[in-house]
Amino acid sequence: MVARLRPRHHILVMTPKRSNGGVWTPMISPKEGMSKMRKRNITGLVLAAAFVGSLITVVPALALESVWLVDSVNPTSQQEVDSESTATGFSFADMKGGIFGEETELLCFGTGLGTVGPGKEDRIQSITTTSCETMKGICGEPRVEAVNLPWLTSVELIGASFYDDLVSTISGKMVGYSVICNKLVEDKCEAALERVLLENGSGGTVNAVSSSADANQPKENCSRGGEGAGILNGTNIVLSVGGLTIAVSEG
Questions:
Q1: Which of 19, 119, 26, 79 has the alpha carbon at shortest distance from 239?
Q2: Is residue 4 part of a domain?
Q3: What is the torsional sign of CA 168, 174, 179, 180?
Q4: CB–CB of 68/244 below 8 Å?
Q5: Which listed residue, of 22, 51, 114, 215, carries a Cα 20 to 30 Å from 148's Cα?
Q6: pTM more than 0.85
């Protein structure tokens, strides 16, 4: 005859142990005690991981500012620069600027003076048109003059591209230009905010690009053509007067 051993159940063992108050208290079996200790350890690890994770997620990202660089550093003061139109010139058009509402366009060449820095700001002090040609419409002795100078500008990053936002420093005035034909102002195109694309060029220069195809560049309102009729196309090359390199950068 073979004796069968019954399995032991370690649930509660009523061992006669007295507490300090002299009351009989049950004891937890060794197996159950180890199980509870493991659960407490696991719970502690989870809470610790969650705490560390919360510390990581609440640290704010540092926002970088778009800035001008002069000789690869952010200048601490304004640095004088000048600009000049490229060989293809700069186009000023009013889509409804003609006598009968037809498009008018002048192609001009010129130069400008201003400053860049410190930080994201720059300033356009003067713009001089050296020559203009009538491309569309009728305009004798064509000339273009910038209005409400000086203009204050600020570099910003839109998507992956740098832009320069232009506003007038004169309270209540807008940036823009006047079209002069036969020594008379025939049209004026303005905007509360103008924006040009900035591209770092070769040789330590920056290209300021105006394009009517760029959705980030607002169109101007013209005295003849009306709202959104004024469009600009062309590139000005910005370079340091002192022969230093300039660029735009993030941070």
A1: 79
A2: no
A3: negative
A4: no
A5: 215
A6: no
Same domain? For 21 and 78 the reply is no
Range of the domain at 187: 66-250
Joined together, the tokens standing for residue 135 give 């491309």
Name the residue with tokens 């003061």: 77
Q: Is there a single domain that holds both residue 127 and residue 237?
A: yes
Residues 44 and 92 occupy one common structural domain? no
Q: Do residues 174 and 189 touch, judged by C-beta distance below 8 A?
A: no
| Strand 79-94, strand 220-222: pairing | unpaired
